[in-house]
Design goal:
Blueprint lengths: L11 H18 L4 E6 L6 H14 L5 E4 L2 H10 L7 E3 H5 L11 E4 L6 H10 L4 E4 L12 H8 L6 E9 L2 E6 L4 E7 L2 E8 L5 H9 L3 H18 L1
Parallel strand pairs: 1-5, 1-6, 2-3, 2-4, 4-5
Antiparallel strand pairs: 6-7, 7-8, 8-9
Helix pairs in contact: 7-8
Length: about 230
């Protein structure tokens, strides 16, 4: 199914504007306090994106704090954006009680990774205001399947909702802009076209079926062969 209203942003600036619109709608009208914004762009420098988002949230009337995974990243952000130094910190700072009297404020968490899982979960458990996770990754491929992975998915991971997601694919893109559905876009000769929507984030097999139709299995096999040949050459 396709929808002429479904469209992709032309560049990162437009993607940031779309993400801000979706996030503000989610914070003001959505249910729950934990929202994620994700741009799956190769080589994306997340620090300047996060700083711009902080300014945009301020301009929208919010009073956000920004937290980084470690003290080094927080120090770099304070150097690059001195105007935000008084609202910039690390996750460990928050865990140790910094801004304890401001936990009802919006918290922008910058790119937490699986190694930050326990610390980030502890901070979020303390927080009473909304938390926005920018380009975070809570699930660890090294954990894979098993009791730990299942516990995490049923627990902390399941408390997050997607305000915005944009992921380039080999022959298209995957996008979600709250409150709209997830859309798979196919790259045709005349540009990207929305071909199928999903109420929840689609699995890889569903994305392949949307992009390739009856040729999805062949494309999967060719992709596996390409990865095998690439591994042999490295």
């Amino acid at each position: 199914m396709s929808d002429v209203s479904a469209s992709l942003p032309a560049d990162l600036k437009a993607a940031e504007a779309d993400a801000l619109e979706a996030l503000l709608q989610a914070l003001r009208n959505g249910e729950g306090l934990r929202w994620s914004v994700t741009w799956r762009f190769e080589g994306l420098r997340v620090m300047p994106v996060g700083i711009r988002l902080m300014h945009a949230l301020r301009d929208a009337g919010l009073d956000p704090l920004i937290a980084w995974s470690d003290a080094g990243a927080a120090a770099l952000a304070q150097r690059d954006a001195p105007e935000l130094a008084d609202v910039c910190c690390s996750l460990n700072d928050l865990k140790r009680g910094k801004f304890a009297d401001g936990r009802e404020r919006c918290l922008l968490a910058m790119a937490p990774q699986p190694s930050d899982y326990e610390e980030f979960e502890s901070v979020c458990d303390l927080w009473s205001g909304p938390v926005v996770m920018l380009n975070g990754r809570l699930e660890d491929a090294a954990v894979g399947i098993g009791n730990v992975a299942r516990t995490r998915r049923k627990g902390f991971v399941s408390t997050w909702q997607v305000a915005y997601w944009l992921q380039p694919l080999a022959q298209g893109a995957l996008q979600r802009q709250w409150p709209d559905a997830w859309w798979v876009f196919r790259q045709d000769a005349d540009g990207h076209r929305g071909v199928t929507s999903f109420e929840v984030r689609p699995e890889p097999e569903a994305i392949e079926a949307a992009l390739y139709g009856d040729n999805a299995e062949l494309q999967r096999q060719m992709g596996a062969m390409d990865r095998f040949l690439n591994d042999l050459s490295n």
